[in-house]
């Protein structure tokens, strides 16, 4: 059940990840043994609020340590890009500087970083906004900058934490298609996408596999494969059948 389509090419392995947060005398078990092999595919993580989805992404990105278990990146020098749940653009920096900053941190000169940043701003359609400040942008444009910033580090693995949930429905739908197109056309370095979402519809629309988490502490309740051609038709009977299956897992 946990074998991806292209199982010869596993990019990321999660082995029995466990995490308990301890604060004062309170212990909160959040992840209860998450194991998953992930290939060159789009995986959606679906689960109730507070079950540990963000924590898992943070562990994969190396921003948090698991108590036990392992995150194994199978590809040499594979970088990881992260699109966070809450907005993280620096308000005193321009769009271009915001996208270039992580590249500076990775050792590029400002000139190199800005050239690279321009390339990815162009990919997300923001080439003429490089001198704008975040407050001058709409919500959708800000999220495009976040996408460009994550892509600019040229990651093999892209982690997205509810990337569309703060946007109005139309903007969200446009960005979903754009991100899928960028990934499928192979114009970026991204091979694997892991996206956390609350939306069953969004998961079926975008992902190759949907991993459903239980309420906290999160375990894998089940995995649903989505073998529908893209772009996907939400009104098709197959789409609706998948919706039923995912909802069954959620309420199990
Ligand atoms: N650094 C931390 N210290 C203590 N507790 C934490 C920390 N980070 C997260 N938690 C707790 O762990 C639980 C899981 O948090 P997490 O952010 O992973 O949930 P989530 O599934 O992403 O939720 P949501 O869907 O609401 O974003 C929550 O109860 C949260 O309060
Ligand atoms: Mg979260």
TrEMBL record:
One of its GO terms (molecular function) is ATP hydrolysis activity. Residues 12-240 form the ABC transporter domain. InterPro entries: AAA+_ATPase (IPR003593), ABC_transporter-like_ATP-bd (IPR003439), ABC_transporter-like_CS (IPR017871), ABC_transporter_ATP-bind (IPR050166), P-loop_NTPase (IPR027417). CDD domains: ABC_NrtD_SsuB_transporters (cd03293). SUPFAM superfamilies: P-loop containing nucleoside triphosphate hydrolases. Coiled coil: none annotated. It comes from the Archaea. Keywords: ATP-binding, Nucleotide-binding, Transport. Transmembrane segments: none annotated. This is ABC transporter ATP-binding protein. It comes from Infirmifilum lucidum.
């Amino acid at each position: 059940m946990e074998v991806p389509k292209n199982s010869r090419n596993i990019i990321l392995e999660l082995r029995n990840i466990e995490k308990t947060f301890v604060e004062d005398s309170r212990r909160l078990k959040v992840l209860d043994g998450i194991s998953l092999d992930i290939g060159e595919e789009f995986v959606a993580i679906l689960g109730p609020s507070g079950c540990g989805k963000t924590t898992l992404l943070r562990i994969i990105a190396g921003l948090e340590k698991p108590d036990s278990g392992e995150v194994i990146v199978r590809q040499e020098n594979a970088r990881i890009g992260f699109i966070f749940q809450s907005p993280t653009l620096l308000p005193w920096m321009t769009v271009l500087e915001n996208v270039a900053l992580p590249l500076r941190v990775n050792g590029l000169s400002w000139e190199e970083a800005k050239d690279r940043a321009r390339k990815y701003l162009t990919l997300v359609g923001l080439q003429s906004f490089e001198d704008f400040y975040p407050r001058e942008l709409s919500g959708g444009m800000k999220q495009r900058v976040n996408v460009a910033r994550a892509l600019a580090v040229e990651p093999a693995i892209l982690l997205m934490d509810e990337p569309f949930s703060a946007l109005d429905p139309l903007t969200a739908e446009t960005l979903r298609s754009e991100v899928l197109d960028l990934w499928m056309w192979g114009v970026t370095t991204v091979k694997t996408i892991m996206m956390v979402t609350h939306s069953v519809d969004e998961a079926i629309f975008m992902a190759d596999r949907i991993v459903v988490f239980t309420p906290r502490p999160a375990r894998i309740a089940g995995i649903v494969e989505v073998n529908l051609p893209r772009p996907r038709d939400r009104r098709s009977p197959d789409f609706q059948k998948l919706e039923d299956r995912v909802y069954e897992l959620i309420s199990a």
